[in-house]
Amino acid sequence: MVLTGTFDGPVALYLASVATLLAGLAAQWTLVRRQSPRKGEAAPEPVVLPAPFSGRWTALNSPATKVPSHTHSHAQTYAIDVLRSGPDAAPEPPFTWLWPPVRRPERYPSFGEPLSAPAAGTVVMAEDRCRDHLTRMSLPGLVLLVLEGFARSQGASRHLLGNHVTLDLGDGVYAVLAHLRRGSLRVGVGDRVAAGQQLGECGNSGNSSHPHLHYQLMDGPDVRTARGLPFAWRYRDVAGAERTGVPANTEEFTPEAPTDRPTDDPAG
What we know:
The chain has helices at residues 9-35, 139-153, 157-161; strands at 47-48, 57-60, 80-84, 114-116, 121-127, 163-170, 173-180, 192-193, 198-201, 213-218, 228-229, 231-237, 242-245, 252-255.
């Protein structure tokens, strides 16, 4: 069949949808290329910082297992996701194939966990308006998450990161804590914060399957133009051994508390 004349109705809608999809894929490809590590350039030394949380957690999508751990776009080359776990945390609801397709985020132990500044710095971005949506921990939910993720990647950074804080730690290092709980932020743009000062709480906003913290370092303040930086934490594994580095996928660990952890007053 040969289409002639002007395109209208379903045909026009179909062509517009295809054009939008192709434009989105091209934009995403361009972003990945622009934010990938420069060819032939060695990765910088990891920045050693305290982890921005306490208690036992589990690592997912870790750069210790694969680089890029997520994707090069949005400075996520060395990003990590972590979940609250361990004997002192409530059990996390299991993944389901069909039912229930979604759950409320309050059912998950990470939701509401306090998150702190890994080092002294200045808040350069603070978003607190995004809702904490229902989880996507089922087969239908994951399909929805993939479609959502593509759509979110075409919009503003907050659509991917959800509620988040970006800190300027000095020396060209910026930290991002993402998927925070709506209404939990205790800081705003321009605030000076101290190492260990509480910033907000873990939530399920943005491009998130279920409550967890997304953490990354980068070399600029804007996730759309910066490149990711490697980091290292001091922590203990489940056997109690002290380590400096990044826990691998599914590894449980307990971060070392900062020795100079102050009160919530950055001047104190």
